[in-house]
Every structure is written in structure tokens, then in C-alpha cells.
């Protein structure tokens, strides 16, 4: 009796502590989610009441809106290229830093710094110059006699400049890999070496399997992150997604539709399509994880 | 060495490469990557001090005529001057940090230390919101704030922080508080502390590393935030540094890169400053929780 009374009072205290967060999750997360699920099936311009149009928004997305489809394509290409690149580069640098190297903390700090700046408008402005017609990249190429037009200004290359912007901020991913590498027991490496395994073999047979939980984690976070890329594309393309929609990221198109053209229903439908794709991706990753993610405490 | 390499040929062969040479190769590689990565930023800072005629046509860092002109022009260019944008950014960032610390620490204490009905369900909900793309709430939140007449106020940017919308930080603090010994709570209880006092006098002072990490990452996220201010702040007198820079690019185009670089340098300075002051905390925060 006394015990349940105490837990009862503790429960009350707990809910007091939780009240800001509970209010937030109800009013700013769950409520809005339900409302946007409803809006996805409507036509709504903020001025007149939402009008129910059933699957109209989704039909339009997939059959009557070529810009939507190109934003999907741009985003998928971006995710498919930039995430693996990010993981490979982070892993490579983490491996280089892992073995008792001098000035480790200095290197770590300098590699990490760009990931704090990468999301800022200031760096996107810099990127616009670097890959512009008379920018740093072309000046360096000019030294070798190579001539090239503006990288951000031509449809074939504009997306790749944003890939490099994302890649530039690999430091955070690298730090996580580095933390993981330090947990790999040295005895395993020594045992493999005694058995005649060279460094490459040791990497693939010892290090990589032990790193799979972190690869899984980084893959998940970086993919979700990449699907939501916005600032770089907005600033580099001046909000247009150009040239010729080559940097029309999904979120940029959602912004244009929702907040420039006030198609709130359509933007909500787009947001839900993104949620479904991300949920499917996350689900797929968790399902396949059993096959390729190795946890040390198994078996 | 030779006998060794006979008994373990592969191992022995690898070992013959001198550790000094591999060390040097390693350092050379790392430094090369760093130079390529950091050169553009260093170049930008250097260019911001060069006269505008020299800004664009030099790959190098040095000049004979350093000047502060770009800073003078940049500061008062655009629609309003940058003192306003900086004050706005500082206000929004400070209120966001206070908000996140308030809501996240209270929530984290409850999850880490208290027993209550539906705890598991709610914790699951917390974890789920970490993976949720914010776009799904972006449109309805915009409609909500619009209807509350919060447009062109700081409320849409700040209030969500006071209501613990950034679940990552709650998770970070829960993980940290769980590492603190329970005996501390019991001792405090025996000394007559209630939960509020245990929270504020015992746990919070010990959770300073987690609080510091949260404060720093909130600072960096708010300072860098672009979409939020872009949506909610339309009046130039409310603009943040990010919006100021963006509109500066709109107004001047490519013609005033000198001033643009000067203002970009100033916009990045607080981030670099905080980083230099607290890099250990930030890097450990990333390494242990995956904040990025």
C-alpha cells in the first residue's frame, strides 16, 4: 500500500518533470503529424478552407508533375553518391588516424571543424565562389591549362558541387568511426597477423566486421540527413534549384511548393512521401542488419 | 629478422617496411587532405582583408595592401546593417540554448531516474522522434504558428526548444545521467531532498558535461539555422546573420565578394571560437552519442 502510494506520487512528479516535453510532443509533433496527414489529401492555400481531393496530390506528384519527379531523381542520386562517399572517406581517414599517430587530437579537431560549419550560409556562399566561373577551382585548373566554365552554373556539374560540400563535412562521421576503431581489441589483430593475414586481409576480416554496428549507425544517420539536405542547395542555386532543376533537392521543391506557392496540401503530401521512403529505408536497414551487422556479444 | 620471415613469411615481409617511413607517409597524406579541405576557408579569410580589386584574381593568401574596407562596406551593406543581424542571432541562439537546457534536462531526469506509468512507451516515442524527418511537421507547424500570429516573431524558432522538440539532446542527457551512481540519489533522499532538489542540486551539477555539450550543439545549430528564420522572419529588422548573408548575396551578386567574405568570416567566427574553447567536449559528444 505504502509502496504503491510512493510510486503514485513519483509518477505525478515524473509527469511534472515531463510536462514541457509532453506538451511539445503533443502540440508540435503528434498533432501536426495528424493534421498534415489530413492535409495531404486536400488542396489548401492558407486563405480558404482545405478542400478534400482524395489522392489528387499523390496522383499529381507521380503523373502530372515532372519537376517533382526530377526533384526525386536529384535527391536519390545525391543520396546514392554522397552517403557511400562520406562513409568511405570517413573510414579511410579514421584508419589513418587510428594507429598511435602523433598530434592525434590536433588532426581530429581540424578534420572535425568543417562539419560544424558545413550547414552554414557562409560556407555555401564560399562554395558558390569556389565552383563559380572565376572561382578557386578553375584558377587551380587554369594552372594546368585546363579550362572549364562555372561548375555551379552548368547542369552537368552543379549537383556535384553540393556533393563535395556534404563530403567536406565528413568529420563527424569520422569521429564516430575513430571511436569505434579504438575499441577493436589489439589481440585480434595480432592473432590474425600470426596466422599470416596482411593488413588488407586484417581490415576486411577483423576490423570491418567489428565496425559494422557503427557503419550501420552512420549509414542510417547520414542517409536520413542527406535526404533532408537544404541550405547548400538553396544558397548555391539562389533558391531556384537550377540550373535546369539540376539541384532541385526534394526539400527545396517542398519549400517552393509549400511556402512560395502556398500549396500546403501538396507540400504535406510530399512530406509524407518522404516519411514513407525514409521509414521503408530504415525498416529495410534494420531487417537486413541481422545479416551484416555483427555485435560482439552474439554467440 | 630473416628467421622470423621464414616462419611467418607474410607477416615478416610487412614488418620490414620501416615504421618511420610509414609514419611519414601517413602524416604527409593527412596533411595533404587537410590542406585541400581547409585552404578555401583560410583563403576566404585572407581575401576578406584584401582590397576589392585583388579579391578575385589571386589564388594566394598574401597581399601588400591589407585593408578593413570589406568589413566596413559589408557591415552596413544589405538592407540593414549587420549589427542588427548579429544581435538578432545572439538573442535567438541564447533563448534556444536556455530552452533546450530547461526542457531536455527535466525530461532526461524523469526518464533516467523516476518510475512512472507508460515510461517505456514514452521513451519509445522519444527515440522515434529522433528519426522523424522534420518536414512532416514543418507545414502544419507553419500553419499553426501562422494562425497564432507568431509570424515575424522569434516564438516559432524558440518555443519548440522550450518544449523539448530536439529529442537528441534528451537522449544524450538520459544516457549521461544513467552513468551517475544511484547512491547519490539515495543519499540525497535520506538527507531530505525531494526530486526537485535532487535534480537541481545533485544531478545537474554532475551532468555538466552533458549540459555543456547540449548548449554547444544548440548554439551551433541555432546559429547556422537557415530554413527556420527563412520561413518565419520576413522583416529585415528581425533577420539573423544567415538571412542577412543570403540577402546580401541576392543584392550584390558576385560583384561584392570581398564584403561577402568579410561578413561570412564574421558569421563563422563564433563557431570557430566556441570550437577552439570546447573541442574536447564537442568531439566526445559526437563520439559517444552520434550527434552531428
TrEMBL record, chain A:
Principal location listed in the UniProt entry: membrane
Topology versus the membrane: Multi-pass membrane protein
Keyword list, A-Z: Cell membrane, Membrane, Sugar transport, Transmembrane, Transmembrane helix, Transport
Record PROSITE patterns: ABC_TM1
Similarity-based family: Belongs to the binding-protein-dependent transport system permease family.
Superkingdom field: Bacteria
Record protein name field: Multiple sugar transport system permease protein
Record organism: Kribbella voronezhensis
From TrEMBL, chain B:
Transmembrane segments: 20-46, 85-109, 121-143, 163-181, 202-223, 256-276
The entry's keywords: Cell membrane, Membrane, Sugar transport, Transmembrane, Transmembrane helix, Transport
Topological relation to the membrane, as annotated: Multi-pass membrane protein
Pfam family, one: BPD_transp_1
PROSITE patterns reported for this sequence: ABC_TM1
Localization, UniProt: Cell membrane
Main location: membrane
SUPFAM superfamilies found in the cross-reference section: MetI-like
Stretches assigned to the ABC transmembrane type-1 domain: 86-278
Any one cellular-component term (Gene Ontology): plasma membrane
Gene3D superfamilies recorded: MetI-like
Any GO BP annotation: transmembrane transport
Family membership: Belongs to the binding-protein-dependent transport system permease family.
The protein's name in its UniProt record: Multiple sugar transport system permease protein
Organism expressing this protein natively: Kribbella voronezhensis
Organism placement in taxonomy: Bacteria, Bacillati, Actinomycetota, Actinomycetes, Propionibacteriales
